[in-house]
Structure of Major facilitator superfamily (MFS) profile domain-containing protein:
Amino acid sequence: MQTQNKGLDMSYTIWLLFVLGTSDLRKVTGNVDYHWPGNGTRDNPHIISWTPNDALNARNYGTARKVIIIALSGLSTLSVAFASSSYSGDISSICQDFEVSVEAATLGLSLYVLGFAVGPLLWAPLSEAFGRRIMFLGTFTLFTLFNVAAAASANFASLVIFRALAGTFGSAPLTNSGGIVADLYSAETRGLAAVFYSCATFLGPVLGPIVGGFLGQAAGWRWIEGLVAIYAGTMLILGILCVPETFNNVLLRHRAAVLSIRTGKSYVTSVDHQNPPGSLAERFQVATARPLRLLSREPIVVVLALYMSFIYGTTYLLLAALPVVFQHVRGWSPGIGGLSFISIAVGMLFATVFMVFINFQYARKSKTSETGQLPAEARLPSGKVGAVMIPIGLFLFAWTNSPSIHWAVCMVGTAFFGFGNICVSLALVNYLVDSYVTYAASALAAATVMRSFCGAAFPLFTTYLYEGLGIHWASSVPAFLSLACLPAPFLLSKYGSRLRQRSRFAIAMSGGDVSSS
């Protein structure tokens, strides 16, 4: 019997190293002699949960380890977002090489972003069912390979197909990184980590044209795709080595399995005891349907997803609009024209500093509150600031972008948009995570699906919009839409608590956080 246990332990050591990122069976097993409820039989199994200072619990990791995990998750997200827009840096060469129109070549951008809508429906809920790490390793491996294939494409059809597949498989970090933030930090401390994750999501599309413009001029569009593949491959290797499994339910499920094997008794997690997971097919069906259920039944998710969709779509609209304004109208080269995106990046960086200050305030208020926690609505003040800044920036850009006015003036407008973009996006991401802690990845996936459709669609009609309306009125269209969205954070601040109390998924308690185990 002892030999059998050792054999099982060895097989689990290899499996756990891949799935959980650790081969330390003692940490996975925990205290074998701990007195869990139940008698260990199949009919009355031991019901396990976290023990105090449990080494397997991701929230008990040291500060340095948490920072490394968040940094790598954010940089992985940045690589995916960067790849979406870097393609546009040398789109004229793609048109020449494959003899296609600019509108057709833009499909390589739009279908990539459309993959962000398809992927999260699978990867986010599957990460909640089977683990964040295994989803990242599988999807990011394919993301890297499809970028290599895109760089070597022999015709336009293969380029577009490989780009679409890369976007689909690369979308996992866009939602799973938000879930990792919820795994590692409690509500009062996760805001600062969410700043980095969200900045990576929105800064990537801005940095892409800057790097892609100069690299495309110097080495051609294939090296743009090659750079993305190198970046993705590097993050994949670092993820394998440094990012373990963090999701509570999955970690405890593996602990229950290991304890059952090593002791011969029956163990089950408290979550699985209350809601048995069912067969693999049933778990897959339930997990993949959850983002769609959130979109169809949760007013909070719908409202926030619509607002995030507008902001995200406007960001990608500017990917096509700024080349029109600065390259076609002002006559700048693609490389120099790509520098126009720096103003958006500067606005985002200032917003990041502002959000760090906001999160310190949030943490201080959490410590002084009676419960030590704050409701999700406490995340919204920065969103209110950003909601005002976005229309100001877009209207300023719209009516100062003619060649007769110095280029720096309209760039101030895009900087304001970048500032407001981060403020609103971070507020909404934090609000979603605080409201749907256990299902944070699915809530973010639901929002990502909707915003990705807008991100894919907006660049397709931008050229026609500017040709039909001119640079002033075409740029005013998103500005007017931003005015319509402006009341959203103010209304959520007033009515959000009532909406959460009626939700089956959201946390209705005033503290806004519970253990996700």
Q: What stands out?
A: Residues 60-244+280-497 form a domain with the Growth Hormone; Chain: A; fold (CATH 1.20.1250.20). DSSP finds 22 helices and two strands in the chain. Strands lie at 46-48, 267-269. The longest strand covers residues 46-48.
